[in-house]
Amino acid sequence: MTSVIVVDSEFKECINEYGQIIDSANEKKILGEELNKFFDEKTNEIQDKEGLKKLIYTSSSAPVLSKLSDKEFESTFNLLIYILSELEGSLLSLFNEKSTLVESLVQCIPTEEPSLRDRKCIKATTILSVLNTIFNFLPETSKERVFILSTILKVVEQSYTSFELIQTSVGTQLVRWLENAGASVESIKQLFWKFISLDDQKRRETLDLIKSFTAKYSLTLEELQQLIKFALLSSTVDISFLVNNNVAKALQSFSNDEYAQLFQKYIKGELATSVPSDLKESQEFIYQKSRIVALAQFFVANEGKGIFKYSDIPSSLVSSSADFELILINSIKSGVIEGRLNQVEEVFALSRVNRFILAGDDESINKNWASVRQSLTEWKGALENIEEIVNATRENIVNSNSD
């Protein structure tokens, strides 16, 4: 997030320029004349700083600024920031939580999404660009940065801005910025989960951000529920990687909660046959995801088998051969399993399946470690016999050449 405010003119010239811009927007030549009255004609010194400041604030309301075209809005607002920072003697005082300047900026968000052909209407991306400029001019440790970050999220939420615009630029740095600015733990958590709620596509990258965040910060019941809803409604099937120590503790602390119970069933490979009321519209989607996880867990439990007939699959998971083939295809697409399907012989050769290792689930962890030990033992045995196999092969080649 980098940007620059460049002002080369003398201060009075900046005032005159701003007055002309606003007068042009209002189609009246009033402000420019009024502003000039605050300067000494001979020395150009300001005679009434407070009066000048008050006039600029009142003439820079949202209804007035909204008359500017999108093309001229950002440069004009940057000029306004420069003028007011000079009059206030500080940049920080302009951008606290009581800032009327920021309030006016946010009020310029269009109430309807502008058409692609509309070049005059101020775009939300332009307002975000102004906020970006403000953010970068504030010291890293200033609490005003917390307010500006909150405002950026507010603009994205209220406008038609795509989450992708802030996904990387803000998402990967948000927590660090808030921590450096001295935000309270409560504020950090509140703004992080607000950011997460803006991703209506429930992207995998956002799930990774949740994983990193919850590794450091504990969860309340409300935060746990938000995590669970987001994960279950995402296209990512294997969401077991989200279960770190803090998430495991929260699941244990709120074990009676219906979301926690659903999540526990899902990640353990049990079919999600019912969901909380506010997830009813997505029940079928969640159920189909849980079938894939349940099938993967079935393969894990029978991993030594390798080859599976269609008839080996429990009827609780599949209703027909065609149904099994469909769930297999979806499982392979989701990356949960790998293998080869033979439709003629109606068999499936499993080559790899995800292991769902969950923090706090000692039984599951012990089983997975046992499987790893067995695989290492088999591998060690194969290595011990390799010299014998090589010698036998060499001897066969020699004998064959002798014949």
From TrEMBL:
GO biological process: cytoplasmic translational initiation
InterPro entries with a match to the protein in the record: COPS7/eIF3m
Cellular component terms per the entry's GO annotation: eukaryotic translation initiation factor 3 complex
Protein name: Piso0_004006 protein
Organism of provenance: Pichia sorbitophila (strain ATCC MYA-4447 / BCRC 22081 / CBS 7064 / NBRC 10061 / NRRL Y-12695) (Hybrid yeast)
Biological classification of the source: Eukaryota, Fungi, Dikarya, Ascomycota, Saccharomycotina
Gene this protein is translated from: Piso0_004006
